[in-house]
Amino acid sequence: MIVVTRVEDIHEALNGVCLTIGNFDGVHMGHVKLLQRVRDRAAAASLVSAALTFDPHPRRVLLGNAAPPAITSTEHKLECIEAVGIQVAVVLPFTRELAAREPEDFVREILVEGLSLRQLVIGYDYAFGKGRKGNFELLSALGQKYGFGVERLDPVIINGAVVSSTRIRDMVQAGQVWDARPLLGRFHQVRGTVAHGQKRGRKLGFPTANLALRDELVPLSGVYAVWVEVEGSIRPGVANIGRNPTFGEFEMAVEAHILDYKGKIYGEPIRVHFVQRIRSEKKFSGPDELITRIREDVGLARMILAAPDARP
């Protein structure tokens, strides 16, 4: 997949695109439906399939620290978009100036003149531009004016409700990672680099990889059955999210114990896929009680991860 941040970088190579636009936070099953439709329509019409998104997320620019955490980083988002089969991703830098542009100016200059737009596929609730005036009705009118077709897809319903980034975020923050999987089409994951921690897990007999996180959305504190992606393989594990109250710590940490693994991975990038929450965080009377409970957690994790539908 070609990734560009300026439309002028690819215009000369395009003979017309079938495009979808969105933030695609999480690249959930609703987004996948849009991307698949773009891919298929582009192939049928001999067009280039393309997705236009923004970095940073518009809410980060408009709301600052009040913005909710992103489900996926831009890196992860682009990997998911590519996996669907999209040929070109345009990642526009999002600014307040861009947000203030009139929808018609954006359509004419970026989509029509910049990307040679021929077909546009949008979600059921999509709107953009100043005052969010760029809705389906306006886009349809602009399509007649500038020569492109517009298709609006219905929402994707899973377990009785519309799939949305907000719904998924709420689930993950409540620790409901198993329930979020059908909406995402995969287990929620966080990425990071293995950093030096207190090495307390090694002393207890359960060495852990302490993550320096790159992702924003972390599940509710507690203990989880997880898959850990490291050094080109996916291994079963148990992750703890919390402040280690037994030892009086205060910094929030994400630590993963990789089952039956002896390697040294300091400085290595890893991904932790959250399968199911085992229990909440708890303060134990001391190391002995904690070791007993960790052994129980490991046994439960092995049982959970052995289920056929728990595979990553």
Automatic annotation (TrEMBL):
Example GO BP: FAD biosynthetic process
Pfam name, any one: FAD_syn
Keywords, alphabetical: ATP-binding, FAD, Flavoprotein, FMN, Kinase, Multifunctional enzyme, Nucleotide-binding, Nucleotidyltransferase, Transferase
Keyword Nucleotidyltransferase on entry: yes
Top EC category: transferase
Functional pathway: Cofactor biosynthesis; FMN biosynthesis; FMN from riboflavin (ATP route): step 1/1; Cofactor biosynthesis; FAD biosynthesis; FAD from FMN: step 1/1
Catalytic activity: riboflavin + ATP = FMN + ADP + H(+); FMN + ATP + H(+) = FAD + diphosphate
Domain of life: Bacteria
Keyword Kinase: yes
Domain called Riboflavin kinase: residue spans: 183-306
NCBIfam families documented for this protein: PRK05627.1-3, PRK05627.1-5, ribF
PANTHER family in UniProt: RIBOFLAVIN KINASE, RIBOFLAVIN KINASE/FMN ADENYLYLTRANSFERASE
Functional description taken from the UniProt entry: Catalyzes the phosphorylation of riboflavin to FMN followed by the adenylation of FMN to FAD.
Protein name as catalogued: Riboflavin biosynthesis protein
Organism per entry: Solidesulfovibrio carbinoliphilus subsp. oakridgensis
